[in-house]
Amino acid sequence: MDRLTGLEVFVAIVDSGSFVRAAERLALSPTMVSTHLARLEDRLGARLIHRTTRRFALTPQGHLFLEEARSILEAVEQAESRMRMSDMGPSGRVALDAPGAIGLRFVVPALSQLRALHPRIVLDLSVGDRTMMFRPEAFDLLIRVGVPAEGKGEVVNLGRTRFVQVASPDYLARRGEPVTPDDLHDHDCVLYATVDRPVGQWRFVRGKERRSLRPASVATFNHGDAIAAAAVAGVGIAQTLEMLVAPELTSGLLKPVLTEWNRESVDVQLFIPQDRMKRQAVRAVAEFLQSRVDWGSSA
Residue 232 domain-assigned? Predict the structure, then answer.
């Protein structure tokens, strides 16, 4: 006989107040209810219910065992509920922070696929180039490029990219193509800047040679898509991530310049703060970003 059924029968008898009503509740015959109770008492070696033809009463052992039986049944119900929820897949809200252009070009187009795989997850995506520092305290996941993780947590490599210098064919036809980084001083340049990260220097790497300079800007933006759009419009030369202008380079809207420089790649990283790592929904989104999104990695 099923031991859990014996417990269910015992609790149902007590709760319903009779063997007949307990049988109705459990969809059993009164005879089977009596049989399950008798087998339970035999296993325990104790009488749980004192029965007469008209009424019953719990014995002292019955009172003691009733609390234990309820606890066991409640634990089983909770475990089954957790398993049913698990079968339905992870659920909950996941807060993801990403640089603006990366969020718009890579995360947003993948949202329908994420929803198809995990319909019970709600993604709260924050896009904006506020700072390049990792700020894990407000988010479950953070995407950053080329910046070491700060704080305790797990770093997942999503892909690799590199910095490139680009300009429109129209601009290069009008102004010529720079041959060395120093030539940029004679060109119009489009720079990246934010309120908390003023215009910085462009860095150039060629083997062991490293150069830094700050070209004069004709426009600054705090968003990678704005920088790409300005370069396509012929405003000037821009330095940006290759992953953010790959379609424009492929279509010919932009042309790379100073191609001997900055061939080294940088990591596109996903940071999972330590206190978020065990959340099932967070792990599901992290796995999705790692395995289902094409980050256009550079070799």
Answer: yes
Q: Are residues 134 and 276 in the same domain?
A: yes
Residue 270 CB neighbour total at 10 angstroms: 21
- The position carrying tokens 């790959």 is 246
Same domain for 175 and 233? yes
134-183 residue pLDDT tens: 445 668 899 999 876 667 889 999 999 999 999 999 999 999 999 999 99
Residue 119 token pair: 């319909």
Same domain, residue pair 207 and 59: no
Domain that residue 230 falls in: 163-257
The pLDDT assigned to 178 comes to 96
Per-residue pLDDT band for 298 (boundaries 50, 70, 90) equals low
Considering the domain architecture, whether residues 201 and 248 belong to the same structural domain is answered as yes
Q: Are 40 and 9 in contact (CB under 8 A)?
A: yes
Shared domain for 172 and 52, answered yes or no, is no
Query: Residue 276: inside a domain, yes or no?
Result: yes
Q: pTM to 2 decimals?
A: 0.68
Q: What is the CATH number of the domain that holds 46?
A: 1.10.10.10
In a domain, 127, yes or no: yes
